[in-house]
Amino acid sequence: MISVEEAEKIILDSMGTMGKTEVELAQASGHVLREDLQADRDLPPFNRSTFDGIAIASKAFREGTRTFAIQGTALAGSPRLSLDSREQCVEIMTGAPLPDEADCVVKIEDLKIENGKATVLDPDQAESGHGIHELGSDCSKGETLLKAGVTISPKEIAVAASIGKATVQVSTMPRIAIIATGDELVPVDSVPEPHQIRRSNDLTLATALNAAGYTSTTRLHLDDDPSEIEATVSKLLESEDVLILAGGISKGKRDYLPETLLNQGVDRKFQWVSQRPGKPLWFGTFQREHHDFPVFALPGNPVSCFTCLHRYVLPALDKWLARTPKAQTYAQLQEETAFHPPLSLFLPAFANFSSDGAYQATPVPFNTSGDFISVSKTDGFIELPKERTHFSKGQTFKFYPWVS
Amino acid sequence: MISVEEAEKIILDSMGTMGKTEVELAQASGHVLREDLQADRDLPPFNRSTFDGIAIASKAFREGTRTFAIQGTALAGSPRLSLDSREQCVEIMTGAPLPDEADCVVKIEDLKIENGKATVLDPDQAESGHGIHELGSDCSKGETLLKAGVTISPKEIAVAASIGKATVQVSTMPRIAIIATGDELVPVDSVPEPHQIRRSNDLTLATALNAAGYTSTTRLHLDDDPSEIEATVSKLLESEDVLILAGGISKGKRDYLPETLLNQGVDRKFQWVSQRPGKPLWFGTFQREHHDFPVFALPGNPVSCFTCLHRYVLPALDKWLARTPKAQTYAQLQEETAFHPPLSLFLPAFANFSSDGAYQATPVPFNTSGDFISVSKTDGFIELPKERTHFSKGQTFKFYPWVS
After folding, report:
1. Which of A332, A377, B292, B404 has the largest CB neighbor count within 10 A?
2. Are A185 and B157 in contact (CB < 8 Å)?
3. Fold classified for B22-43+138-171
């Protein structure tokens, strides 16, 4: 039995780097960017007016001119004009290019306009540089604006669009097969016999993977039948990039998976981790065309399965896709907790921000690792290290939010 | 000019409640549940073994029996067995129903099994109730497990699947039209003239709406042409449930939108909010078949536009869809800040969890509300109230994370 930290390291060390592909920017949200993006020109690309008002030469104002003849109008989207003389001004709209020879925009609220002339009312608003979003002040041509590894979210879309990236290089999405095992499982829309339960793990895992940006998922169910398991696993090892199995990996008589996976050439890296829930966690890799692919065999209990997905599988996939690691979330434990077995404890908890800015995690009592109802009231789990048995209220620990 | 709080209240008060629709559970993630979900039977539906081991009557153990003849095997997914006598045991697998007359499961690690007999090695593991996830201990038949208003995420999927909800009632998704306006805007894949910029607002807004669960979006661009704007807005008011406009709503000569919206019968609720960025924010509603629909006209500057989406539009849509309001996020300001104008300040900031569990927001310097490059380095914005001019390091304020 190995520690959580050892298991995490073995998994992460086994993950190489996925290939790249090109996607349309409109489809890029959630993908991992695999190229640095540079500005294709200075931004803003011209001295841009930030107000509706008039553009003047501030020197004329300093030398006493208060009223300027309006020579024309600068509109957003129109080519740059030029001031004909210092006694004149150009009416200018927000987003329009500042005319040559002008160095200041006075906003409409600070003007009186009549008979084709504009009079400046507020002298403080007529200084050089006022009302101008200066050429190149956001970035210079060639400057790196986004780094490879970032997850593309709406704000990255805005940057990429503004520099003309209609398509972007991203990590290829792995094909993920999710296999729920167990004779006791029946379809969601059926009425189970008293000894049966409905299949929920595969749909839950698929939904969580999709929500985390891993959208290429297939779901299967296998009965506890060694030849069916062997045949299906064999096929999946040919076609899929990741296998995530739920159930059938402990020491039960019908836990055929560990043996099947070995028979099929999957290289077992570990089984049994000193954690609760999720002790029977099994991890291995298989080779295809000289590349390594991961197999995660998660415990079948829904809480164990969901917890292990967040603690191990999602970070592993993130590394595989070369995603810049997320910053660790920490939370303050809100209840004195004692736990004696020498195991790391993953404790589902409700989380909130206190109005003084602390992130707080309150464990929700739950029955067993089969009790998913209690977990649905939580926001993630707090991880209590195995080296200790008592955990005080107010102490801070790592917190893993559920994907939502 | 009204305050942020007044604007928020006017918007939220204008939002009614969207209708409902039925979706497949596998497609329900991100939707707002519109029915309470009850357990259709006790969960677990039987006394469920939590170990691989043997099921015994603990009374026999207390009375001295240590070795039990194995009468058979209880498998997950098989009907419940019954102990033939107190001298016997049933081999049992995790997830299998506890046999009648048995009240305890001793796990395989605490047993010696040979010649069809199992001997209990650890007396502490043979107490009544040990190793059993008791019938009905997670919930009772008829108990409400999920409440209407919850956003369906993977953990709600798990609950719904386990109680047989293959389809669920959710809020109807509104059809949202996003319209970027401005002659200066050119397509992302074009090479702009020096006075032009690429369209990014509409794609950014659409991506953010999609990421927030609002997946039915259409994007358009309109030039600053009053008759084109009038004709398009008129059509959209017939076909769409929400109009989000970006740009063309300030006091510029070519800001035709406010007038067009009024001409088209949109009831203006307010324009101008005492905030930076985003002062020109315009909001109204229109009627169709006796229902009210919202029109948000956001400022065209990308930072203003993105900020107003998060501060006003997303909470409004959440209320419309009857989504239970999210808990407010708070963060500790990490930099002494002074701001004198009597405006609420939305300050884009980098956010992190300190290792003692505080959520911290560090403002990122930025140029103007046109500077989207700086915003791409932030995680959201901190809201500094307009009643004050000085904000100390370490003080806590509301924080709005960007959708990602």
Report:
1. A332
2. no
3. Molybdopterin biosynthesis moea protein, domain 2 (3.90.105)
Residue A253 is predicted with a pLDDT of: 79
| pLDDT of amino acid B252 | 76
Is A111 in CB contact (< 8 Å) with chain B? no
Number of CB pairs, chain A paired with chain B, less than 8 A apart: 342
The reported pLDDT for the residue numbered B258 is 87
Does CATH number 3.30.1230.20 belong to domain B329-401? no
Q: Thinking of the domain A48-133, which architecture would CATH place it in? A: Beta Complex (2.170)
Residue A255 pLDDT greater than 90, yes or no: no
Residues of A in contact with B368 (CB under 8 A): 50, 133
CB contact under 8 A, B251 and A108: yes
User: What residue ranges do the domains of chain A occupy?
Assistant: 4-19+174-320, 22-37+148-171, 48-133, 329-401
pLDDT at residue A403, as a whole number = 95
Residue A212 reports pLDDT greater than 90: yes
pLDDT profile of chain B (404 residues), mean per 10: 98 97 98 98 94 95 95 94 96 94 95 96 90 93 97 97 97 97 94 94 97 96 93 96 92 85 96 95 96 95 95 98 95 96 96 92 83 92 97 97 95
Q: What is the pTM assigned to this prediction?
A: 0.95
CATH number of B4-19+173-320: 3.40.980.10
Residues of chain B with Cβ-Cβ distance to A168 below 8 Å are: none
Nearest to A46 among B139, B194, B329 (CB): B194
Distance between A161 CA and the closest CA of chain B, angstroms: 5
Residue A1 has pLDDT above 90, yes or no: yes
Chain A residues with beta carbon closer than 8 angstroms to that of B153: 207, 211, 402-404
Q: Which residue has the higher pLDDT, A283 or B251?
A: A283
At residue A179, the pLDDT reads 96
Q: Which of residues 206-245 of A touch B (CB under 8 A)?
A: 206-208, 210-211, 224
pLDDT in tens, B311-323: 999 999 999 999 9
Separation CA A245–CA A262 (nearest Å): 14
Question: For A4-19+174-320, which CATH class?
Answer: alpha beta
Q: Fold match between B4-19+173-320 and B48-133? A: no
